[in-house]
Structure formats: structure tokens, C-alpha cells
Amino acid sequence: MEAEIPGQVVEDLLTSFLSAALGLELHVSIDTLERLPLNHRDRLQAVAVERIIWVAWQTNLGVVVATGRYDHEHSRRMTAHVMLIEWWIPPDTHHAGWWRANPKRPTEWTAGRSHLLASTLSNEKL
């Protein structure tokens, strides 16, 4: 297995995703759990089976949180950043899916296939 992708790279990719793929206006970064609204803290703790990389931003829609799990194997095969991304938008919108971005164009995101998501989530103990 290749070396781990630094957490900062995944955070930068998540921030790019929120801005470029979702079209959110990012105002202020929230960098500690304590600064998050309680409902977002609870959600992050519920999905954090392992160390999870997340970003949170005050946006034009309120506080938005996204988590990312980098898939090294698919990234290597596709020569792209491939991530399972989950995000929460106020008041109660939650989405999860596979997304990829070309390393040379990290602001251009493409949605992956949903069957990969189903097989990944069924193999995890959430």
C-alpha cells in the first residue's frame, strides 16, 4: 500500500468539493469540534468508527460539515483522487457518495457509481 495521503490534502479536497461541486459560499472555517453546533458534533461522533477527516464551514446555507475517506486503491487505478464523501447541510440534509477529482483539476468533481457506496457501507460497522 502506498503512503497515506496527508490529512491536510483530504481537507483541501473536501473544501474544494463544498465550493466547486456543491456551489456553496464558504465564509468561515470551523476547525474544532467544540465550535460546531451540537447536532453536527453528534453526527461526526456517530460516523467516526476510525479517525475521520472532516471539514466544517459557515456557508450561505449555515454550518455545513463534510467527511472524507480517501480510497487509495481506486485513486491509484484511476489516477485521480477518489473519496467517499458525506456531507450535512442545514437543517437536516445528508448525502453520501463516491466522488473523484483529477489531481490536475481539483475543482472539477465527478460523481461515482452508487453500487460502490452500497458495497462499502455494507462492509463497515456503522
Describe the structure.
The chain has 126 residues and is of the alpha+beta class. The protein has one domain (7-123). Helix content is 33%, strand content 37%. Strands 1-2-3-4-5-6 form a six-stranded antiparallel beta sheet. The protein starts with 6 loop residues before the first helix and ends with a helix. Mean pLDDT is 84; it is low at 117-126.
Low-confidence stretches: 117-126
Instruction: Kindly estimate the percentage of residues that lie in beta strands according to DSSP.
Output: 35-45%
User: What percent of the residues sit in helical stretches (DSSP H or I)?
Assistant: 25-40%
What count of structural domains?
A: 1
Number of helices: 4
The Cα radius of gyration reads 14 Å
Q: What is the H-and-E element order?
A: HEHEEHEEEH
Largest sheet: 6 strands, antiparallel
What's this, in brief?
The protein has four helices and six strands, in the order H-E-H-E-E-H-E-E-E-H.
Task: Furnish the topology, listing elements before pairings.
Layout: H1 7-21, E1 26-30, H2 38-47, E2 53-59, E3 62-70, H3 72-78, E4 81-89, E5 93-102, E6 105-111, H4 114-123
Antiparallel strand pairs: 1-2, 2-3, 3-4, 4-5, 5-6
Short descriptors:
6 strands; 6-stranded antiparallel sheet; about 35% strand; disordered C terminus; alpha+beta; about 130 residues
